[in-house]
Structures are given as structure tokens and as C-alpha cells.
Design a protein that fits this description.
extended, mainly alpha, 2 domains, 2 strands, 8% strand
């Protein structure tokens, strides 16, 4: 029982230390205008895709992208649009035709690596045959 308490206390202490570090970083941070933030966000970013053991370049989704994405109800078409708006902006070989040839699991792993949630198609786990 005391072992569980010590593990719990250790976790609480780590969370407190993390919060202290975050507050210290916030104290050192400078104020920025939207123009400054936008100027910092001009180029593509990189994401490591562990399932493919590679890095890809992408651009983040912008607020202006959401209306087009919100219209799409089909999850597969939504994934294609999302990849075109992110990965496709940084890599001209990312086209609808090429994405149609990409495996569903790879597509899901790329979306996850881009920080776009736990995207899941109809099969969240590979099945065994």
C-alpha cells in the first residue's frame, strides 16, 4: 500500500515541478502581436512518422481551412482534404491521385503524426487473417 502512495506522490511531485517550470517559462516569455506570430509561422514544419520511419514536411491547418473541412461528411474524403491542406502544401507530390493509392493505415499514421488527433478509419486495428 505504501508503495502505491509513494508512486502517487512521485507523480504529484513531477506534475508540480512541471507546473513550476511552465510558470517560469511564462514569466520569461515576451508579448507578441498577431503579426509577429504570423511572421514566425511562414515555413513548413517537419513531423516524424514512426510507422513509416521517415519525416515529412507539412503546413499547419489554418482557420480559413475549416469551412471546407466542415462541409465534408465522408471520413475518407475528409482525410484526403486534410492531407492536401497540410502535407500537400509542403510536398507537391501529395495529390488526390497519389493519396488514393496510399494505404489506410499509413494515412491514419500520418494524420496522427501531424497532430490531427487519433484519426481512425473503419478499422482502427489491423486484422489478422
Amino acid at each position: 500500500m505504501s508503495e502505491k502512495k509513494s508512486e502517487g506522490m512521485k507523480q504529484i511531485e513531477e506534475e508540480v515541478e512541471q507546473e513550476i517550470r511552465s510558470l517560469e517559462e511564462a514569466d520569461k516569455a515576451k508579448f507578441k502581436t498577431l503579426s509577429e506570430i504570423l511572421s514566425d509561422d511562414t515555413g513548413p514544419k517537419e513531423a516524424y512518422v514512426p510507422a513509416l520511419n521517415c519525416k515529412i514536411k507539412f503546413h499547419e491547418l489554418k482557420f480559413g481551412d475549416y469551412p471546407a473541412l466542415a462541409e465534408e461528411k465522408d471520413p475518407f474524403k475528409l482525410a484526403v482534404k486534410t492531407l492536401l491542406l497540410t502535407w500537400g502544401r509542403a510536398d507537391s507530390s501529395v495529390t488526390e491521385e497519389n493519396l488514393a493509392r496510399l494505404g489506410l493505415v499509413k494515412c491514419t499514421r500520418i494524420l496522427e503524426a501531424l497532430g490531427l488527433g487519433g484519426a481512425r478509419g473503419p478499422l482502427s486495428k489491423p486484422t489478422q487473417t
